Automatic annotation (TrEMBL):
GO molecular function, one term: acetate-CoA ligase activity
Biological classification of the source: Bacteria, Pseudomonadati, Bacteroidota, Chitinophagia, Chitinophagales
Ion transport keyword on record: no
Record PANTHER family: ACETYL-COENZYME A SYNTHETASE, ACETYL-COENZYME A SYNTHETASE 1
Protein name: Acetate--CoA ligase
Location of the Acetyl-coenzyme A synthetase N-terminal domain: 13-68
InterPro entries associated with the record: Ac_CoA_lig, ACAS_N, AMP-bd_C, AMP-bd_C_sf, AMP-binding_CS, AMP-dep_synth/lig_dom, ANL_N_sf
Residue span(s) of domain AMP-binding enzyme C-terminal: 522-600
Organism: Chitinophaga hostae
Family as reported in the entry's similarity comment: Belongs to the ATP-dependent AMP-binding enzyme family.
EC number: 6.2.1.1
This protein's UniProt keywords: Acetylation, ATP-binding, Ligase, Nucleotide-binding
Domain (AMP-dependent synthetase/ligase): residue spans on this chain: 75-460
CDD domains tied to this protein: ACS
Length: 637
C-alpha cells in the first residue's frame, strides 16, 4: 500500500496546509481519490454551522470495510492485520492476517444478518479487548448496522442509558473480560442492564473467561454456535452493504457538561478519510511497520487508531487485552520487545504511572525497534514527556502529542512524527484541513501569536461529528451556540510566539481523569442517588498520576457516627451507577455549599479548596452565606 498523500517534509506540510485552507474541497477530493468507492461524490462539501448541517462527499457510495479489508486482499492477504496479545503473558498471542480478518468479518456479518439485523439498526457492543471486538464492529459496518461500543468499565445503569437512547435491537457481549488481575463479569452486568431495555431482541455472547453466565431462552445466543450455523451453510460470502457517504457508521457516547452523556454521531465517508489521513500522516506509517495503540476500543482512540485508521491503511495494528502494569510494570516494554513494535501510542496517565516504578522495569528490555511515540487524552506534563523521550525513545524517537476529541473523529493538532519540530507540552500545529481559532469570552478572535483563549474550529473537517444521536438541537446548542459560526471544543488553549498550540485543559464542567472524560454533573447526579444525600458538588483537583482527581463535596441529611463508612458507600454508589472510573478520590461531607444569591454553586471556590490553594479564594462577597467557605476550609484540615 502506498500513501500518495503522505507528507514527507516540513515544506510538504506547509504546502498541504495552505492548499487545504485555500481550496478545502480540492484538497480532500485529492485524498479521497485514493480510496475505494462504489460511486464517487457529486459534491465534496455542503455546510453551515448555523443549523448546523455538515455533509461531506454527497452522493458518494461506499462501504468502509471494503476499504479496510477487501481492497487489501490482493497485496496484503497474508500480512498481519491484527496482532493480539492476551492479558496473561503465558497465553498464546494471535496473529490475524488481512485474509483471516476478512473471512471472520464476513462470517460474523452473516451471523448478524441471520439474527435479523438490517442496515440502519443499532447494535450495542460491550466486550473486552479481544479480536472478536474488532470483528464485531467491522461486521456491523459490513452490513450497514450502526455500532455503539460501550467501554467494558461502565456499569449496568450506564449501559442501559446508552442502549435506550440509541434503541439498540441487538447486543454483542462476552461472558467476561480479563483486565489485569480482574475478571469483569460482562454478561452478568449486561443482564442487569437489559432489564430496562425492551428494544433488545437478541444477545450474542462470545466466550472468553468461561465465567458462568445465565442464558435467556429465545434471546441469548453463543457466538460460537452462531458461527457454526454459518459454517453449515457453507460460509457464504457477505457482500458489503452499499452505504451513502453520510449514512451513520457509529455512535459513541461521551460526557459533556450536562448530566446525560450524548451520542456522538459519525458517518461513513468523511470519518474514513479523516481517520486514515491522520493516521498515515501523524505517525508517518510505513508499510510493514508494527503499530501499537494502548487505548481500549471502547473509546474513540481505539475506534480511530486501533481499528479504522490502521486497517484502512493496510497497517499491522497490535491489540492488547490487558493493562500496562500487569503482571508488572514492564509489560508494555515486553510487548514492544516481543513484537518489535515500531510505533507506541499511549496516554500521559499510563506514562506517569509507569514512571512511578522507576527504570527497573525498563532496563534490559530491547526497545530498539521503536521509531515513533505518541500521546493522547490529556495534556502531557513536561516531566512525563522527557521521561518518555529519554527512557523509552532513547532520545531518538519523535513524540507526537496529539490533541483531538470524540467529536473530531481524528487527530486535529499534533506534530507530524519526525517532521514538525517538537516542544514538550505542546500539541504544536494543526494538521492540514484543520483551522483553529482562539477567542475570548465574548467570542472575539484573538489574533496573532502569544495569546490564550478558548479553542474553536472555524471550518469543517471530514471527521467531525454530524449530530448527537436523536437530538440535533443538543448538537447545535453544545457545539455551535457559544460562539457564532464556530465549533467550540470546550478546551482552553495557548498559541505561543512560534504559533504553536498548547492545550491547557477543559474550560467547561468536564473532568479528565486518567484521560477519561467525566462530566461533573453526571457524578453529582450519581452521588445524589445515594440515600441521605441532600446535595453535592464535584470538582477536579491535580492528581499526580490521573492528571485530575475527583473531589466531591456532599451535604447529608444527617450525620452518622461513621463518616468514613458513609464516604465509602457514596463512592460505591457512584461506581455502581456510572462505573469505577467515576469514583470520587476524595469526599468531604459539608454543612453547606458556596452559592451565589441566585443559587449557583461557585465551583471556582470549591476548586481552590480542593487544590489546597486556601489563601487565594478571590472575591467571596457575592455569596449568599460567606461563612460556609470558612466551614469547608476548616473541615478540610
Ligand atoms: C481523543 C480523546 C477529549 C478531551 C479534549 C481535551 C483532552 C485530548 C489531548 C487533550 C491536551 C492532548 N485532550 N488530547 N488535552 N493535550 N494531546 O481523548 O477524546 O475522550 O473525547 O477527550 O481530552 O480536553 O477536549 P475524548
Amino acid at each position: 500500500m502506498s500513501y500518495p498523500y503522505q507528507i514527507k517534509s516540513i515544506e510538504d506540510y506547509q504546502q498541504a496546509y495552505q492548499q487545504s485552507v485555500i481550496d478545502p474541497e480540492g484538497f480532500w477530493a485529492n485524498v479521497a481519490d485514493h480510496f475505494y468507492w462504489r460511486r464517487k461524490w457529486d459534491k465534496v462539501l455542503d455546510w453551515n454551522f448555523k443549523d448546523p448541517e455538515i455533509k461531506w462527499f454527497t452522493g458518494a457510495k461506499l462501504n468502509i470495510t471494503e476499504n479496510c479489508l477487501d481492497r487489501h486482499l490482493g497485496t496484503l492477504g497474508n500480512t498481519p492485520a491484527i496482532i493480539w496479545e492476551p492479558n496473561d503473558p503465558e497465553e498464546h498471542h494471535r496473529i490475524i492476517t488481512y485474509r483471516d480478518l476478512y473471512n471472520k468479518v464476513c462470517q460474523f456479518a452473516n451471523v448478524l444478518k441471520n439474527n435479523g439485523v438490517k442496515k440502519g439498526d443499532r447494535v450495542c457492543i460491550y466486550m473486552g479487548m479481544i479480536p472478536e471486538l474488532a470483528i464485531a464492529i467491522l461486521a456491523c459496518a459490513r452490513i450497514g448496522a450502526v455500532h455503539s461500543v460501550v467501554f467494558g468499565g461502565f456499569s449496568a445503569q450506564s449501559i442501559a442509558d446508552r442502549i435506550q437512547d440509541a434503541q439498540c435491537s441487538l447486543v454483542i457481549t462476552c461472558d467476561g473480560a480479563y483486565r489485569g488481575a480482574k475478571d469483569i463479569p460482562l454478561k452478568s452486568v449486561m443482564d442487569d442492564a437489559l432489564m430496562a431495555c425492551p428494544s433488545v431482541k437478541k444477545v450474542i455472547v462470545c466466550t472468553r473467561t468461561r465465567t458462568p453466565v445465565s442464558m435467556l431462552k429465545g434471546r441469548d445466543l453463543w457466538w460460537e454456535d452462531e458461527i457454526k450455523q454459518v459454517e453449515t451453510m457453507g460460509n457464504p460470502p457477505c457482500p458489503a452493504e452499499e452505504m451513502d457517504a453520510e449514512d451513520l457508521l457509529f455512535i459513541l457516547y461521551t460526557s459533556g457538561s450536562t448530566g446525560k452523556p450524548k451520542g456522538v454521531v459519525h458517518t461513513c465517508a468523511g470519518y474514513m478519510i479523516y481517520a486514515n489521513y491522520t493516521f498515515v500522516n501523524t505517525f508517518q506509517y510505513q508499510p510493514g511497520e508494527v503499530y501499537f495503540c494502548t487505548a481500549d476500543i471502547g473509546w474513540i482512540t481505539g475506534h480511530s487508531y486501533i481499528a479504522y485508521g490502521p486497517l484502512s491503511a493496510g497497517a499491522t495494528t497490535l491489540m492488547f487485552e490487558g493493562v500496562p502494569t500487569y503482571p508488572d510494570a514492564g509489560r508494555l516494554w515486553e510487548i514492544v520487545d516481543k513484537f518489535r513494535v515500531n510505533t507506541l501510542y499511549t496516554a500521559p496517565t499510563a506514562i506517569r504511572s509507569l514512571m512511578s516504578y522507576g527504570l527497573g522495569p525498563v532496563n534490559h528490555k530491547d526497545l530498539s525497534s521503536l521509531k515513533k511515540l505518541g500521546s493522547v487524552g490529556e495534556p502531557i506534563n513536561e516531566e512525563a514527556w522527557h521521561w518518555f523521550k529519554d527512557n523509552i525513545g532513547k532520545g531518538k524517537c519523535p513524540i507526537v502529542d496529539t490533541w483531538w476529541q470524540t467529536e473530531t473523529g481524528g487527530i486535529m493538532i499534533t506534530p507530524i512524527a519526525g517532521i514538525t519540530k517538537e516542544k514538550p507540552g505542546y500539541a504544536t500545529l494543526p494538521l492540514p484541513g484543520v483551522q483553529p481559532i482562539l477567542v475570548d469570552e465574548n467570542g472575539k478572535e484573538l489574533k496573532g501569536n502569544g495569546v490564550s483563549g478558548n479553542l474553536c474550529i472555524k471550518f469543517p473537517w471530514p471527521g467531525m461529528l454530524r449530530s448527537t444521536y436523536g437530538d440535533h438541537e443538543r448538537f447545535r446548542k453544545t457545539y455551535f451556540s457559544t460562539y457564532e459560526n464556530l465549533y467550540f471544543t470546550g478546551d482552553g488553549c495557548l498559541r505561543d510566539e512560534d504559533g504553536y498550540y498548547r492545550i491547557t485543559g477543559r474550560v467547561d464542567d468536564v473532568l479528565n481523569v486518567s484521560g477519561h472524560r467525566i462530566g461533573t454533573a453526571e457524578v453529582e447526579n450519581a452521588i445524589n442517588m445515594h440515600a441521605g444525600v441532600v446535595e453535592s458538588a464535584v470538582v477536579g483537583y491535580p492528581h499526580d498520576i490521573k492528571g485530575q482527581g475527583i473531589y466531591a463535596y456532599v451535604i447529608m441529611e444527617r450525620l452518622t457516627h461513621d463518616l468514613e463508612l458513609t464516604k465509602k458507600d457514596i463512592a460505591q454508589t457512584v461506581a455502581r451507577i456510572i462505573g469505577p472510573i467515576a469514583k470520587p478520590d476524595k469526599i468531604q461531607i459539608v454543612g453547606g455549599l458556596p452559592k451565589t444569591r441566585s443559587g449557583k454553586i461557585m465551583r471556582r471556590i470549591l476548586r481552590k479548596i480542593a487544590e489546597n490553594d486556601l489563601d487565594n479564594l478571590g472575591d467571596i462577597s457575592t455569596l449568599l452565606d460567606p461563612s460556609v467557605v470558612e466551614e469547608i476550609k476548616k473541615g478540610k484540615l
